[in-house]
Amino acid sequence: MIYFVKFFLWLLYLMPAGMPYWLSEKGAGLLMRLSPVKRHTAERNLERCYPDLDPAERARMVRASFQHYLCSILESGHNWYRTPEKLGSYCDGIVNRDLFEEARASGKGLLVLAPHFGAWEFLGVHLQEIGDVAILYKPPSNPGLDKALQERRRRGGGILIPASMTGLLQLYTHLQSGKAAGVLPDQQPPAGKGLFVPFFGIPALTSDLVPRLAKRADCNVFAAVCERFRGGRFLVHLLPADPEIFSDDLATALTAMNRTIETCIAIDPDQYLWSYRRFKSQPEGVEPFYDFR
Predict the structure, then answer these.
(1) 0.90 surpassed by pTM
(2) Of 84, 39, 91, 82, which is closest to residue 62 (Cα–Cα)?
(3) Longest distance between any two alpha carbons in the chain, whole Å
């Protein structure tokens, strides 16, 4: 299996930089037809998160979101095989780099929140330019694929830390020593591992990892997203987290984290992964958010 995956990614690697975007524009409709559950999920998410939008505009956003999802898949060959230097040449700049560098110079650790927006795999490669950055990840079940994944994702000098109890302790130690770490803040945690707080005004089970790390490690917190443009070009945005993320009240801190993610999405809502079932879990007594399988 691993050889097939590598060969498939190598074929994608051969495409010119702008071709994944062009192909995703053409293939988004087909992907929607082949993925009815993901399509319905995106439709429901956008219907509830943007209730005031015209239905035609929401339908356009669903298709655009699928386009960017497909583009992320088609870009994977570039992210897998092209050098960090080559990938860096596709970046047109970093918004708020001065604030980011100021935070780095403070001597405190730096926790980077990277939601599922735009070219998040490209962002992972780009963040390794920080130096000695640790990235929390969920290892695939196939050991061969996990080994290959680590080899490719580490080539920029980053450290991959598995999302386990041992890994979380390693991540905390890394931050406390004044280094940088990246985490995904918008995944739904297992039941009992977070709190229900608003996300676009809707109760969303939200992991308490980020505010607990931020408080214990006394680190700076930024959000980072990579905006995708036609022609294989990108722009990295670095946004200081909502200050209330450091609140002693966990619900307040988690709500602030979700507001920070909403600010990231507002850069271009089309590029968020709306097909993810972010609201699958709901508080007891609340009707299911998704009424389809």
Answers:
(1) yes
(2) 39
(3) 52
How many CA atoms lie less than 13 Å away from 214 in the CB half-sphere?
28
State the CB neighbour count (10 A cutoff) for residue 141. Answer: 7
Q: Is 172 helix (H, G, I), strand (E, B) or coil?
A: helix
Q: Give counts: helices (H), strands (E), the chain.
A: 12, 9
Residues linked to residue 159 through DSSP beta bridges, in sequence order: 134
Are residues 162 and 139 in contact, defined by beta-carbon separation less than 8 angstroms? Answer: yes
Q: From residue 142, give the alpha-carbon distance in Å to each of 167, 200, 243.
A: 19, 36, 40
Q: What residue ranges in 62-212 does DSSP mark as E strands? A: 91-95, 110-113, 134-137, 159-162, 180-183, 194-199, 202-207
CA–CA separation, 192 and 204 (whole Å): 13
Q: Mean pLDDT per segment of 10 residues, for the chain of length 293 residues?
A: 80 94 97 97 98 97 98 93 89 91 90 95 78 79 75 71 87 91 91 91 96 93 97 95 96 98 98 97 92 73
